[in-house]
Amino acid sequence: EIVLTQSPATLSLSPGERATLSCRASQSVTTYLTWYQQKPGQAPRLLIFDASNRATGIPDRFSGSGSGTDFTLTISSLEPEDFAVYYCQQRSDWPPSFGPGTNVDIK
Amino acid sequence: QVQLVQSGGGVVQPGRSLRLSCAASGFTFSIYGMHWVRQAPGKGLEWVALISYDGINKHYADAVTGRFTISRDNSKNTVFLQMNSLRVEDTAVYYCARDRGWQVELQYFDNWGQGTLVTVSS
Question: Which of A29, A51, B25, B68 is disulfide-compatible with A90, CB 3.0–4.6 A?
Fold first, then answer.
C-alpha cells in the first residue's frame, strides 16, 4: 500500500501570499496524484487531477506539479476562501489512499 | 447540476447494523462508478468502498471487508452502504463520491455528497 506524506502539517500565511504544499509518495505513483480542498463542515472538493490538471471551475491561481514520488500544489496568491485543509490522493496502486492533509490557515 | 444527497446514519451500538443511502441526480448515474469515503472526527480521509458503474465489481478497504457491503440500484439512481458488525472505530462522517471516469473506474472523486455522521457507541 502506498503511503502519502504531506508537508507542512500547517501553513500559516496571509491573504495575497503564495502557498506551496508538498505531497510525497512512498513509491512512484507516476502522475496519478489528485488534490482536494476541504473547508470545515464541508465535503472535499476536487482541485487537481493527474498531478497538474485543474478540475472544472477551479481558478488558475491553483496549480499542481510533480511526478513519481514528489508533488506540489501551489496557490499563487491566497484568497480569503482558500484557507482550508488540502489533501493529496493517489490512484496508482490499490487501494486509493490519501495523505494526512495540510492545513492552510490565516497568519 | 450534479447532486448527491445522502441519508441514513445516526447513533448505533457496537455490533449493530446501519444502512446509508446516496441519491444521485443531474447526471447519467448508470455510467459512473461510485465510492464511499469516510472521515473520523478531526482526522483525514479514508477510502472505504467502490462499486463499478454496472454494479458488477466491488472493492473494499481491508478495515471493512466482510462487514460492509456496497450496492447500487441504477433504476433509482441510488448507491447504498450496508454496514454490519459496527465497531467504535467506524465512527466517522461517511461521504458518497462519484468516480471521475465514464464506464471505467479512475479512482478519484469529482463530486461528493454532503456527508452523514455515523456514531458507534454503547
Answer: A29
* Cβ–Cβ under 8 Å, residues A87 and A101: yes
pLDDT at A82: 98
Cell of A55: 478540475
Q: Do B45 and A98 touch (CB under 8 A)?
A: yes
Residue B32: how many other CB atoms lie within 10 Å:
25
Chain B residues with CB under 8 Å of A43 CB are: 95, 112-115
Q: Would you state the cell numbers that stand for residue A44, as one nine-digit string?
A: 472535499
For chain A, the first-to-last Cα distance in angstroms comes to 36
In chain A, the residue whose alpha carbon lies closest to the alpha carbon of B43 is A100
Which residues of chain A register pLDDT less than 70? none
